[in-house]
Amino acid sequence: MPIRYVDRRDAFAVADFMTEVVEYLPESDRAPYLQAIEDLEAGEHVTTERLAEVAKNLAMATYPARRATMQFFQTVGAKDEWKKVLESVRPTTRVLLERLCKNIECKSLDEVLGSSDASYAIHDQEEMELEALRPEIRLRYWQSHQTSLQKLVEDAQTELEGMKKRWQMLKQIAGRSPKQASTLLEKLEMYEDKVLFGGETIALEVLDQEVRYAAEEAAIPSTDDALVGAEDLPVRFVAEEEEKPEEPTEEKE
After folding, report:
1. How many angstroms separate the CA atoms of 51 and 10, rounded?
2. Distance between CA 177 and CA 117 in Å, rounded?
3. Which residue in 48, 65, 181, 191 is deepest, having the highest Cβ count within 10 Å?
4. pLDDT tens across 113-124, in order?
């Protein structure tokens, strides 16, 4: 099974994710998510399926803010993140990161972590420290810079809506194609994990190709009502029959 950002079958892993991202929401919107976490921690009966569904709703609600903040730190804010990380890590970790950065003339933390030197210089302890620290730095930045990130938030929301529309179409195809159902549902779970829980994105062109291929395999006709939302996508599902030229008719004398 592929590695997931969040194992939705593990209730405590799900609760950890919810705790990490719930503060991206306005305080007035957090209550149902905090209640689910409290119920689990108090030993109340909360089914794994129900908790996973609540976490998915929270992931969708916070995705635009998380994605916008991630994009900022991956681009123009990379130096800001680097500075904040060096200020926050243990002294030994800071020395290690600075040495790695100097060796490769880095411009961001991502470059350091992606370097070949990092694979043997950064050990489990430092890796866990950074994995815990980066989400906290991004959350604090979001909370104090929401206005300046608004355009990125709007772009991320539009992107998410496009992905959700295509996921829904793949789900419809799975329901109409038993031989593809298992494969498509597994892909959908992987896409949701990568985007909603990992904060990443999937190019709409890639999803369009997935929809096209799956629909062709299921022999779904290229009509507007074949799949909900199909009319909005730049894809064709099955090759339409070529129009045959009309045969000339003999004129009667």
Report:
1. 10
2. 48
3. 65
4. 999 999 889 999
What is the dihedral angle through the alpha carbons of 207, 210, 212, 217, rounded to the nearest 10 degrees? -160
| Beta carbons of 20 and 135 less than 8 angstroms apart | yes
Quick: pLDDT tens for 119-176.
889 999 999 999 999 999 999 999 999 999 999 999 999 999 999 999 999 999 999 9
Scan for tokens 């062109």, then name that residue: 205
Per-residue b/e over 52-74, b at no fewer than 16 CB within 10 Å? bebbbebbebbbbbbbbbbbbbe
Name residues whose C-beta falls within 8 Å of residue 55's C-beta, 6 or more positions apart in sequence: 6, 8, 14, 17, 18, 197
Segments making up each domain of the chain, as ranges: 11-72+149-232, 75-144
What is the rounded distance in angstroms from the CA atom of residue 153 to the CA atom of residue 172?
Answer: 29
The structure tokens 């592929």 sit at: 2
- For the entire predicted model, the pTM comes to 0.84
Q: Exposure of 202 by Cβ count < 10 A (0-12 exposed, 13-18 middle, 19+ buried)? A: middle
